[in-house]
Design a protein that fits this description.
The protein has a single domain, classed as Formiminotetrahydrofolate cyclodeaminase monomer, up-and-down helical bundle (Four Helix Bundle (Hemerythrin (Met), subunit A)). About 70% of the residues lie in helices and about 0% in strands.
Length: about 240
């Protein structure tokens, strides 16, 4: 999420306090989440939606793996699919937490911006708090991108080795995960514009480029094996 424009960083003691939006987004129903996203509230924003997208991709991956376990003709990959299902579950739970972590990071930065800046000591403390908050708000989507990239690999395994009648579900998992990677990276990258730590910027920017390129390349590779001619249109 683009937290604010540069001008807001220089304001101390705002005449109108920043409104904070602490809410457990992960506890909302689907309809409530969609309505909250569509409202005038700044959260949930792109970062939380990226985490949700990755969690959905992990859920699809786990589903395909479980539809493979115990099925005739897939005995040789059963142990691998069990491992895929277990890891996808762990990633899903972590990504669900990231939905809230991203919105909470926004609130933390807004709180820092609202700190008093009347004295030199207050100004210094305010700047430190803002910069610390910005780094946190950048590292969270970076973590989401890394987790989503791992989900891509797991989903790719279900496409290559999982139940062929669920191959499109695995393929959607790959595509959703790729989108989550890129979405999270966009949110991290734009926050770098207001961070002052050059080493942090350089390190993170390099990782953004690497993860983004790999996600685009891996999607093509992982989906290259999709063959709908093998699908049995009967029940999975």
């Amino acid at each position: 999420m683009h937290l604010y424009d540069d001008s807001s960083l220089s304001r101390g003691n705002p005449s109108k306090p920043f409104q904070l939006f602490y809410i457990m987004l992960s506890e909302l129903t689907i309809k409530e989440f969609l309505e909250k996203t569509a409202s005038g509230s700044p959260v949930p924003g792109g970062g939380s939606v990226a985490a949700l997208s990755a969690a959905l991709a992990a859920s699809l991956t786990e589903m395909v793996a479980r539809l493979t376990i115990g099925k005739k003709g897939y005995e040789t990959v059963e142990d691998e699919m069990k491992a895929v299902a277990q890891e996808a579950l762990k990633l899903k739970l972590k990504l669900v937490q990231s939905i809230d972590n991203d919105s909470n990071a926004y609130n933390d930065v807004m709180s820092a911006i609202g700190l008093p800046g009347n004295t030199e000591a207050e100004k210094s403390q305010r700047v430190k708090a803002i910069q610390s908050g910005l780094k946190k708000a950048t590292l969270i989507p970076m973590s989401v991108a890394e987790d989503a990239a791992r989900v891509m690999e797991l989903a790719g395994k279900t496409v290559a080795k999982g139940n062929k009648n669920a191959i499109t579900d695995g393929a959607v998992g790959v595509m959703m995960a790729k989108t989550a990677v890129l979405s999270a990276l966009y949110n991290a990258k734009i926050n770098l514009k207001t961070i002052k730590d050059k080493a942090f910027i350089d390190r993170t920017s390099k990782k953004v480029e690497e993860l983004g390129k790999k996600a685009l390349d891996r999607e093509k590779e992982l989906l290259s094996t999709v063959d709908l001619s093998t699908v049995d249109l009967h029940l999975k």
